[in-house]
Amino acid sequence: LDHPVIEDGQRPVQRPAQVQQAVGKQDEPDRRNQEQQAEEETTAVEHLTGPPCSWACDRALKNSMNPEKCILAIRKIRESGVKIPIVVTSYYNIAYQYGLERFFTDINEAGANGVIIPEAVPEESGRILAISKRAGVPLIFLIGPYSSEERIEKILKCASGFLYIVSATGVTGARENIEDLTIKQIEKVKRSTKIPVMVGFG
Q: How far apart are the first and last CA of the chain?
């Protein structure tokens, strides 16, 4: 969870093939057959992404989903009368390619209530935090099962909207039981802030 966020202009952004497709800017085609490439791409993201999330991403890409369509869908949901909170989860590279200012502004105008960027950490998120505040869309930070009190304190200083406590180690997906470590982490965070807490992992 503590991977540094790459700010605009620092160095080229290397995008996973799935993200590359989602933002609509594909790399030069290679000579591998499509079946082999798809298998390799799926394997690359499964180190953290469990089967349900992998299937959802695969289905979205096969149906030509991209940020514009996602934002339009949010707008239509709001226009239909749905009032429950909507939070967008996106890899940083997608927002970066879309344009950070435009990304947060469009999401706000569509009616979303927050954005989760898993790679975002307090130490490297000054610019994106400023952009999210200008757009009026909270940037939601993640707290891991093993985050120290010092780390939690850093996150709390710039947190808004709610806090996302990652409920387990391993890959994303449902669990039959909640680990004691997670319960203790929830209690620790709740003692330190009045910001709402959500617990889960994909």
A: 13
DSSP the chain: --PPPPPTTSSPPPPPHHHHHHTT-PPPP-SS-HHHHHHHHHHHHTTT--HHHHHHHHHHHHTT--HHHHHHHHHHHHHTT--S--EEE--HHHHHHH-HHHHHHHHHHHT--EEE-TT--GGG-HHHHHHHHHHT-PEEPEE-TT--HHHHHHHHHH--S-EEEE--SSSSS--SS--HHHHHHHHHHHHH--S-EEEE--
> 132 Cβ partners below 8 Å, 6+ apart?
104, 115, 138, 139
Cα separation, 94 vs 194, in Å, equals: 31
**CA distance linking residue 39 with residue 70, whole number of Å:** 25
Look up residue 93 and give its two tokens: 């590279």
Spatial distance between the Cα atoms of 18 and 24, rounded to a whole number of angstroms: 10
Smallest Cα–Cα separation from 10: which of 154, 124, 118? 124
In tens, the pLDDT along 87-106 reads 999 989 999 999 999 999 99
Contacts of 156 (CB under 8 A, 6+ apart): 163, 192, 193, 195
- pTM exceeds 0.85, yes or no: no
